[in-house]
Structures are given as C-alpha cells and as structure tokens.
Design a protein that fits this description.
By secondary structure, the protein is an alpha+beta fold. It has one domain. It is elongated and about 50 Å long. The two termini are 18 Å apart.
Length: 96
C-alpha cells in the first residue's frame, strides 16, 4: 500500500529535473520488516527495500536512504559539486 508520494525538482539548465519518490507501507517478513521505496530518476526508476526490526525502523531507514540517494546522485555530478565548492547551494524544490 502506497503511503506517500513526493515530487522534487532540481534547478538545472535548460530545464528543471523532476524526481518522483514513492514510499510504501512496511510489510512483515519472518524475522524483520521491509519498507519498499521507489525513486524515479530521469535515467530510470530505482526500486529498493529498507529492512528493520519493526515497521517504524524500516520506515525511518527508508527515509534516510532516500536522502542519501538524493545527495549522492546529484553531488556526484561535476557541475553540481563545482557549484557547491564555490559556495553555491544545491537547490531542490518539492510538492507534497
């Protein structure tokens, strides 16, 4: 069951880059819980599962991993990394 969707837009030239994120309700496995999340990058979708000892831990880990994915994806680009080194901010905007 889908819990939340969120759209982010990375400010870029010539047009903003749209990223959609979906987080699903954690489900119980034999000994742990898993929370599926999806990130729609311009290059394609990425589907992952974060695991925890209970539903809340799985959800929290999924949210932290989403932040890590966003940070790593866009700071790995040379132009963005150069902008950050020059004191410019990485600008993200989103809609709930």
């Amino acid at each position: 069951m889908l819990v939340v969707t969120h759209e982010l837009f990375v400010k870029s030239q010539p047009a903003d880059v749209r990223i959609e994120i979906r987080v699903y309700q954690p489900i119980q496995f034999e000994k742990d819980w898993g929370c599926r999340y999806e990130i729609d990058w311009p290059e394609g979708s990425k589907v992952l599962i974060a695991y925890g000892l209970d539903a809340l831990q799985a959800l929290v880990i999924a949210l932290k991993l989403i932040g890590t994915e966003l940070y790593n994806q866009y700071l790995s680009c040379r132009s963005v990394a150069a902008s950050v080194r020059q004191g410019r901010r990485l600008r993200l905007s989103g809609t709930a």
